[in-house]
Amino acid sequence: MKLINPTNRFIPVIVLILLLTSSLLVFSLIYNSALETGQKISPWIIGICLLPFLLGLWLYFIIVKQRNHADGLQSQIKSLKAQEVETFMKSQKKETAKEIQKEPLEYKKLLERIIPNIPTDDIEKYGEVLLANVAKTVEIVQGQFYFKNLQTNMFRFKAGYAFYSESIPPEYREGETLAGQVAKNQKLINIDNIPEGYITILSGLGKGSPKHLIIAPIITTENKTIGIIELTSFKPFTSEHEELFSQLGRKLGEILSVNQK
User: Fold this and answer.
1) Helix or strand or coil: residue 205?
2) 8 Å CB contact between 188 and 214
3) How distant is the alpha carbon of residue 240 from its chain centre?
4) How far apart are CA 153 and CA 249, in angstroms?
5) Which of helix, strand or coil describes residue 73?
6) Residue 242: band (very low, low, confident or very high) from pLDDT cuts 50, 70, 90
7) Region 100-111 average pLDDT
8) Cβ neighbours around 120 below 10 Å, total
């Protein structure tokens, strides 16, 4: 255990006081001895007595100067560290801001690729091109497009991608079937591990059953569901896919709502 901390600022002062005290004590002894013998005290004797104190005083000023210099360096180091941290935090904020700004632009580009640039008069053809564009952009293996008939309020199958059936898929109202529930709630659903045989894909390689299904509503600016998109894939749909198809449903709602007026 250390009794004295060598970094203590008071140690040089204490040492200086001890040197002064010892110098005065030696001088006092010499002075008393000189008085008893009747001798004169030489200036050299006085100088020798004060020499330790003067040397200590000189060393004290050197130590104080060096300590002040060290304190200045430490202060500069702390200031540089603080500046580095501040610069790093600013750069991180800028990167985060760039990422936040970049994300909507990416969705915008994807939507421009998916949404057909053709007239909407022929809704069947529009739906076919739409699903084909989705397949080119996202790894889907099958797609279905339903559009609402205002006279019957039924969602009717209009187009498919890689879809084969001996009969036309049945119509449904809002709240009926899983897709009808999506139309009613106006919320996209993403289902994993759908039952074997629920959806069958036919190709030259044989049959296959995708395990992942996403159903997205097409919603107008008046907040009405006018269509449904069903997409299936062998790979899971991510949260980015959910956001993409949610935005797609809103954009299609703006475009296709004119076909119901």
Assistant:
1) coil
2) yes
3) 15
4) 19
5) helix
6) very high
7) 71
8) 15
